[in-house]
Write a structure and sequence with these properties.
Residues 1-32, 661-694 are annotated as: Disordered. By secondary structure, this protein is mostly helical. The protein has a domain at 456-652: Rossmann fold. Helix content is 55%, strand content 5%. The protein contains 32 helices and 9 strands. It has a 5-stranded mixed beta sheet. Strands 1-2 form a two-stranded antiparallel sheet. α13 packs antiparallel against α15 (287-308), α22 (406-424) crosses α23 (429-443) and α26 (502-513) runs antiparallel to α27 (516-525).
Length: 694
């Protein structure tokens, strides 16, 4: 999409990009103050995220809630008493009698070891706090860290403003609060913070192509794998993003640095977590990571060959690469297919199959289907669990495409997959919560630098009129804007909101409906020097959402025709309609296409570029492609167009613009009174002298 800054310059308009950011290499004077404000706001959000989860302790007491957390607490207490090594090899004879349980090999140790580490640090600082208190407050503590990670994630996607808004939403979203309240000492209390941190590190590596951030991504993923079984969501989402980037032609060094080390080192990291072990390379839910790893290298190989070889040689080499690659991929596919078909579940775990096939658990694994949080959610659950975010997230999803960067593509894919999985299992509403919060932050009223996006076109236009138009100049527009023009621009108007003189209003309506030459004569007869129109079709391009500004003059034009025709019989409404329909596309009647309102509104509109695959000159308000995309004005001169094209000001020319013709050097100017003989081609009998012809 072409933004407003790429359109031809217009007098009085500052060059501004579509996201509102000024293009400058120097830091603004208020940048330090803005940074301090961002830091203080972020601290306040983190404190809010922690504070809202403490009401269970205030209302009741410092106690662990629910059932599952008590196992985690018991193992954590064992860790503080016996140490790391014994806990890793702990055999619990108090459960599953007479079988018992090998705790170290059947649990995700991240939560327990994190609490134990915090306890160790506090003990070293001579703080005599009991391990139970640490377990109780783990959820609120990591909620603040999750808000921090969300800020940095969305900062990479959009900027500080979206980051702060997203952090504020994740701090108070009900779905996440229910799993991270004080006393909820379960895996999810730290896992969501780890999940968002991994996403931040991945996007940061995408944007910077830095091996340092890729290393941080490895350690972040290792912690996530050690903390929650939901790591499988990451190990499938990242390949989906990588594959989508390849398909969309977004192959880059950042993509390779972010994904290739993760695919291999991430699998090696998962191998070292006993509860996962060799499942990291043997289960089907991990195979996508390795498949996309190979596709990524093939894409880079083709790209390198294309940049190295001449075109004809490249085509031949490309065919060889595709042939060999297809053959190798076919062999691997046959081997993998044979391997997975040997398993009754095709190499998938029961929980994964329950997500891919919502009916699987009820048919084959009743123990999974019997858990209430494994049931599909009701529609009302989305509002109850996400609350205000449900209203803003759809707008953020659309806005993520303007512009579509590698980071925003990842956000879109994260949101779409999370919506699907949350629709299968209500428990996974928790995975959707960060995505919804980030989309809501993207869809809120703010720019990349955190400032509010203000559409100030009317005041901008009135200010231009007051500073650039002579004080005694007369300004014409439709009567709706008369009061504002007089008060804010301090200029004389032809009609205003009083509407006491219908004939005067009809005269302006008639002038807007007439072709250029006739309308300019009407305006000049009223001593009008400037005319402005309100235009709403371009603002939809700037926002990327909605349908522009529908209360513009094109939508009011039929009333101008009707009011003008009520006084002046030469204006007939039927001349501006196509079989009773009001159109602005190629089916619009000639009177409509020739009208001054049409031309002043759509002048240069097609030059602004296409929108989301739509053709040039697509009007988002009318949802039509204009019928007259390329024309020039002869009796009006554009002098000002506001930032979002909502107000367009034209000067009424005293006479039509004329093309300046350069003198013809081959033309011989005849002297006064002399006769110039016409030149005839040689060989023509008529070119011979008259006597010879006789």
């Amino acid at each position: 999409m072409t933004d407003a800054s790429n359109t031809p310059p217009v007098s009085g308009v500052a060059t501004t990009s579509t996201d509102g950011s000024k293009k400058s290499d120097k830091r603004s004077p208020g940048s330090s103050a803005a940074s301090l404000t961002t830091v203080l706001t972020l601290i306040a959000i983190c404190l809010l995220a922690t504070a809202v989860r403490l009401f269970s302790v205030i209302k009741y007491e410092s106690v662990i809630h629910e059932f599952d957390p008590y196992f985690n607490y018991r193992v954590t207490r064992y860790l503080t008493e016996e140490g790391f090594t014994k806990t890793w090899n702990f055999f619990d004879s108090f459960t599953w009698y007479p079988l018992g349980r090998i705790v170290g090999g059947t649990m995700y140790p991240g939560l327990i070891f994190t609490a134990g580490l915090i306890w160790k640090v506090l003990q070293a600082l001579r703080s005599p706090i009991h391990i139970q208190e640490i377990c109780v407050f783990m959820g609120p503590l990591f909620s603040g860290l999750c808000a921090l990670a969300t800020f940095f994630f969305m900062r990479e996607v959009r900027g500080d403003g979206a980051g702060l808004a997203s952090a504020a939403f994740i701090a108070i979203i009900p779905s996440y609060i229910s799993r991270s309240v004080a006393g909820s000492y379960d895996l999810e209390s730290i896992a969501i913070a780890a999940l968002v941190t991994v996403f931040f590190l991945y996007v940061k590596t995408l944007n910077t192509a830095s091996l340092r951030w890729a290393t941080a991504l490895f350690f972040g993923y290792l912690y996530m794998v050690a903390s929650w079984g939901g790591y499988s969501f990451i190990v499938n989402l990242l390949p989906i993003h990588c594959l989508a980037s390849i398909v969309l032609g977004r192959v880059s060094t950042g993509l390779y640095v972010a994904y290739a080390p993760f695919a291999i080192l991430g699998a090696l990291a998962a191998l070292n977590i006993p509860v996962i072990g060799f499942n990291a390379v043997l289960m089907s839910e991990h195979f996508a990571s390795f498949a996309v790893f190979g596709i990524l290298h093939a894409a880079f190989a083709i790209k390198w060959i294309k940049e190295t070889l001449p075109p004809r040689t490249y085509e031949a080499a490309k065919r060889v690469v595709w042939t060999v690659g297809t053959a190798v991929a076919g062999v691997i596919l046959v081997l993998v297919t044979g391997y997975v078909t040997a398993s009754p579940t095709f190499g998938w775990t029961g929980r994964s199959l329950s997500l891919l096939d919502p009916t699987y658990a009820s048919k084959y694994i009743p123990i999974i289907a019997s858990v209430s949080e494994h049931q599909p959610p009701a529609w009302s659950s989305y509002y109850n669990d996400l609350h205000l975010v449900t209203l803003l997230a759809p707008a953020g999803l659309v806005a993520a495409f303007t512009p579509l960067t590698d980071a925003s593509l990842f956000l879109v894919l994260y949101a779409v997959t999370a919506v699907y999985f949350s629709g299968v299992m209500v428990r996974l509403m928790l995975v959707l919560a960060p995505a919804a919060a980030c989309l809501a932050g993207r869809g809120a009223t703010r720019q990349r630098d955190g400032s509010i996006k203000v559409f100030d076109d009317f005041r901008e236009a009135y200010s231009w009129l007051s500073h650039n138009v002579p004080a005694d100049a007369k300004v014409a527009s439709w009567w709706d804007y008369g009061y504002q023009t007089t008060a804010m621009a301090n200029r004389t108007v032809i009609v205003d909101n009083n509407t006491w003189n219908n004939t005067h209003i009809a005269t302006v309506g008639r002038a807007m409906a007439l072709p250029e030459k006739a309308s300019s004569e009407v305006f000049r007869s009223l001593d009008v020097e400037y005319v402005f129109v309100v235009f709403g079709a371009f603002i939809g391009r700037v926002l990327g959402v909605g349908r522009g500004y529908p209360s513009d003059d094109i939508n009011k034009f039929l009333w101008m025709v009707r009011i003008g025709g009520g006084v002046f019989p030469d204006i007939k409404e039927r001349d501006y309609l196509n079989r009773g329909q009001y159109r602005v596309d190629s089916t619009a009647p000639k009177a409509m296409l020739d009208s001054t309102m049409y031309r002043l509104s759509y002048y240069r509109f097609a030059e602004t570029g296409p929108l989301f695959g739509m053709p040039y000159g697509y009007d988002r308000v009318r949802q039509q492609t204009i019928g007259l995309p390329d024309f020039k004005l002869k009796h009006y001169e554009e002098v000002f167009t506001s930032e979002h094209w909502m107000v367009r000001v034209y000067r009424v020319l005293p006479e039509p613009n004329r093309e300046v013709r350069l003198p013809n050097p081959n033309r011989v100017k005849a002297q006064r009174g002399a006769k110039v003989k016409p030149r005839r081609p040689s060989g023509d009998p008529t070119s011979m002298p008259s006597k010879t012809r006789q």
